[in-house]
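comment on this one:
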Amino acid sequence: MKLVVLGGGESGVGTAILGKKKGYEVFVSDFGKIKENYKEILSINQIPWEDEKHTESLILDADVVMKSPGIPEKAPIVKKLLERNIPVISEIEFAFPFTNAKTIGITGSNGKTTTTLLTYHILKQGGLNVGLAGNIGKSFAWQVAENNHDYYVLELSSFQLDGIVNYRPDIAVITNLSPDHLDRYAYDYNLYIASKFRITKNQTENDFLIVDHDDVEINRWFQNNKTKAKKLSFSLTTTVEEGGFEENNNLNSKINNDLFTMPINELALEGKHNLKNAMAATAVAQLMKVRKQTIRESLSNFQGAEHRLEKVLKIQNVQYINDSKATNVNATFFALDSMTGPTVWIVGGVDKGNDYDELMPLVREKVKGIVCLGVDNQKLFNAFNDVVDVMIETTSMTEAVKIAQRMAEKGDTVLLSPCCASFDLFENYEDRGRQFKNAVHNL
């Protein structure tokens, strides 16, 4: 059996290692450059690879192909594989049959990283032998090859879900839905939503699906579609029968008539959206029979995700916040909504078909100045130029932070919440976030 791996990054190399261990003939091909440390690992494991090209003769004879999530379906090599009916799957799909571990799959437009990290944190504190994988941490396939976890908490993007056939999470979570990555879904929001709901397509009546009760699109999906899984939900507006809700300034979570409760002001994470993330993680923990005391302690001592509303420094009474992971309008909406005082907003990058209208009321109310950090900022100018007093363009993070410092006064906040992808000026959102933090520390 020949396994071809497209993409020599974390998920690609992990899949190659697992494939080799399971007796596949493996070949790794990357159209870009493979990082030196990954080349070394492939060579040590005697796995042939190529980069900066796709040699068709070595790829089109595959029995199965694992495509890294960053490669779009419309890539020429992928089209050729599909024309020949060669299965093109995701890393999750490939690795799933090789483990008996239970998996918790978490997806959604926003909050999935925080919910995944928080769930992992609670289960680990609860003494479970648990791994963290998917979109974060070490690749799932790699861990299946080398570790023996009983449980995995997986952060799953829509791209990873597009490549599943049989994968079935024991517990699935959909945090929320808002337009994202529409450039990969022919600018059709319904295709993107269908992609997210693939997480539950193989679930049985023994499995659980946890969703946001307040989400318009999730509710619309359930009007026309069904899941076999047992559905639990969480809400900030109503008392749900099974799942999480807010009452008397407490987070409540009711599973199988067992009520967990905790004061909201004791949660480590602030903001309404994080209350929802905490409800989702709590429901998972209760289903996994983690002690209530452990859940309470974990929710109060959790250190949030890096690059997600991360407080960097306070300089001359101005708070600098790194929200580089906000790559869409909905994420930035949460960020601006949680600002309490006047805000200088650093925004921009590769626009994925954003509609900035829903940000208008928040920008009017909270934003005193905007620093555009992108190669093409025309759309941002068109949207906000008449709304704020000052708008300045730059293509350097150091300069953006210095300009923001000049605009900010005591009691203000400088917020990096780009609303866009990072690929025009940075390697990825982590690189962008780290550059922001370095620039702040150098002020």
The CA atoms of residues 230 and 326 lie 31 Å apart. The chain has three domains: 2-89, 93-301, 310-441.
